[in-house]
Design brief:
By secondary structure, the protein is α+β, with helices and mostly antiparallel strands. The chain has seven helices and four strands; from the N terminus they run E-H-E-H-E-E-H-H-H-H-H. Helix 1 links the parallel strand 1 and strand 2. This is SH3 domain binding glutamate rich protein like.
């Protein structure tokens, strides 16, 4: 199975270039075999990509933007779905590939299988039954493992220690109550100031984050708008060329 990544080598959008680099760089880091198919210099690649992206995955104008990812003829997704899979450690599932042993995704799959089956893999034998060869301590197999002498000795020790423990417990409880009261008073004085500082810091971080996110979103929307205009201009130019050729043929 070959992973196909449809890219635009001459895209004027920095946002699209960055997304393409992210996808390619991550696939190379995972050592996944893939093929880059350029839609900017190859009209067949462009048409194949547009025709094979599912309708429900296309944007409102019907023109899907790169990068678009396929496993042979099967559609995997665009950059956004790829990014979500990467965040969830599910890239191999996204690509339709089995995760290599020892990878985070393989470990997650093993854990999910353990939870689903209700038993650990190392506790079962080849037939899927619990392995009787696992040794169980004698104390766990026999509820009466302790001898009568040990039980009697433990009971005597408990009786001897009860008198002293009661007195010590009363003194300790009084000291603990005083300490707790002092801590509560101190915490009551410090809490309002800490809460005010935390609220101020949170508000500042939230405002900075929102402003930065809005700037990035505006920039990306502008770049995508420019690319869509370029795409539409190319389509219109192709239609005009086809019309001119038809007119020439009719004139001949």
């Amino acid at each position: 199975m070959v992973i196909k990544v449809f890219l635009a080598s001459s895209s004027g959008s920095t946002a699209i270039k960055k997304k393409q680099q992210d996808v390619v760089g991550f696939l190379e880091a995972l050592k996944v075999d893939y093929a880059q198919l350029d839609i900017a210099c190859n009209e067949e690649n462009r048409m194949w990509m547009r025709q094979n992206v599912p309708e429900e995955k296309k944007p409102a104008n019907g023109i899907p933007l790169p990068p678009q990812i396929f496993n042979e003829e099967s559609y995997c997704g665009d950059y956004d779905t790829f990014f979500d899979a990467k965040e969830d450690n599910l890239v191999y599932s996204f690509l339709g590939l089995p995760p290599p042993p020892g990878s985070k995704e393989a470990v997650q799959a093993d854990k999910a299988d353990i939870v689903e089956n209700g038993t650990h893999a190392e506790e079962t034998n080849a037939e899927g039954n619990l392995d009787d060869s696992i040794e169980v301590p004698v104390e766990e197999r026999n509820g009466d493992a302790h001898s009568k002498e040990e039980l009697a000795q433990a009971a005597d020790e408990e009786d001897e220690g009860e008198g002293g423990e009661e007195e010590e417990g009363e003194v300790a409880e009084g000291e603990t109550a005083d300490d707790e009261a002092t801590e509560e008073e101190t915490a009551g004085d410090e809490a309002p100031a800490e809460e005010e500082e935390a609220v101020e810091e949170t508000d500042e971080v939230t405002e900075d984050t929102q402003a930065h996110a809005e700037e990035e979103e505006e920039q990306e929307e502008e770049e995508l708008r420019q690319l869509e205009e370029e795409e539409e201009a190319e389509v219109q130019e192709e239609e005009e060329e086809d019309l001119e050729e038809t007119q020439e043929e009719e004139a001949e």
